[in-house]
Amino acid sequence: AFFSCDFNDTWLTDVSSAIGRRIFEPRIYTEHLHWAVGKQAKDSTYSETQARGVRDNVQVLYDNLLPKRQEDAQKLLTFIEQFNKSHEPQNSV
Questions:
Q1: How high is the mean pLDDT of the chain?
Q2: What is the b/e burial string over 10-39, where b = at least 16 CB atoms within 10 angstroms of the residue's CB?
Q3: pLDDT tens for each residue of 2-27
Q4: What pTM value is reported for the model?
Q5: How many CA atoms lie within 13 A of 75 on its CB side?
Q6: Contacts for 1-4 with beta carbons within 8 Å, 24 or more apart?
Q7: Rounded-to-integer distance, Cα 14 and Cα 73, Å
Q8: Which single residue of 17, 52, 66, 67 could bond 4 by disulfide (Cβ 3.0 to 4.6 Å)?
Q9: Nearest to 3 by CA among 70, 57, 67, 66
């Protein structure tokens, strides 16, 4: 875990997009109940999360970890290729 708050979902989105495997699943509905759009009151949990993000400079950390995201994408591509090769139908003579 690199981040004290935020960016975990962004990481997965970026990696899946980079390898062409990001898909939209219409049967799953996710709603972000954020105070900024009136979905809930701004509470201490949000304030603490926001303070952690500033303290840990998570945006800069995320930006600086681009090579790691690229490495993760390559690992996934390699795994998918190896998996597909190992599951190809065998020609029988």
A1: 94
A2: ebeebbeebeeeeeeeeeeeeeeeeeeeee
A3: 999 999 999 999 999 999 999 999 99
A4: 0.81
A5: 7
A6: 2/61, 2/62, 2/65, 2/68, 3/56, 3/58, 3/61, 3/62, 4/52, 4/53, 4/55, 4/56, 4/58
A7: 9
A8: 52
A9: 57
Would you call 68 helix, strand, or coil by DSSP?
Answer: helix
Tokens for 90? Answer: 């065998």
d(CA 8, CA 13): 9
Cα separation of 62 and 88, whole Å? 38
Q: Which of 6, 9, 4 has the alpha carbon at shortest distance from 69?
A: 9
CB 2 within 8 A of CB 63: no
